[in-house]
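User: For my dataset I need records formatted as: sequence, then structure tokens, nothing else. Please produce one.
Assistant:
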Amino acid sequence: MKKYLVIILSIVMAVLGLSACGTQKTEDKTTKETHKLKIVTTIFPEYDWVRQIAGDQISNMELTMLLDNGVDLHSYQPTADDIMKISDCDLFIYVGGESDAWVEDALKEAVNKDMKVINLLDVLGSSIKEEEVVEGMEAEEEEESEEGEEEPEYDEHVWLSLKNAKILCEAIASDLADIDAAHADVYKQNEQTYADKLEALDKKYQAAVKEGNKDTILFGDRFPFRYMVDDYGLKYYAAFVGCSAETEASFETIVFLAGKVDELSLPAVCT
């Protein structure tokens, strides 16, 4: 993997170097007039948050989402074009965690040394959760570091908590305001408007849980909603943890989950 990234980064640096040689004089004259903020995100939630916070200023941005529809965050590998987009962007937003291990090498060769970088897990700090294996769930083999100690695996699906979303949007608005001070008030106002919408939705979720006659959900697949169920005090059963590479549940797991559906009289199995 590391060798693969080194090759990609070498190509990127060569291309960017050639581009700079041919356009430097023109850019020196027009950068201030034509420069658009270049923002790169890895997944859709980050992309959508930027759109909400930017508002009408989105027309003055080049906003890119690296993962196409249907691409799994946990198996994504950047292309040379992806690395180029990251290299000279003004703001790069990514999840962090094991799935984004490639980011460290990509950022080392960034052309824009003033780039702002937001790691969602870092922003949330101590509130991020380690993956947990609940009753009936298939556990994966644990990997050990070179020192022989177990490396904690964190649940990366932090965007599925409305409370987390509010915190992360504040961080995005703050960095946009730093990069584009002329429109700082716009970003802060848009972020507050969006935060109010998230707060209203959060209250609807709380009311729905309070009025419901079930407090348990069951997934027949990977379970990415750990943050959400913890926010609302719900219980859950699932075949695999959220970041599992497994997709085929064992016979024992299927039997256990089917038994829970009957035992708890659950109306549906989520997938």
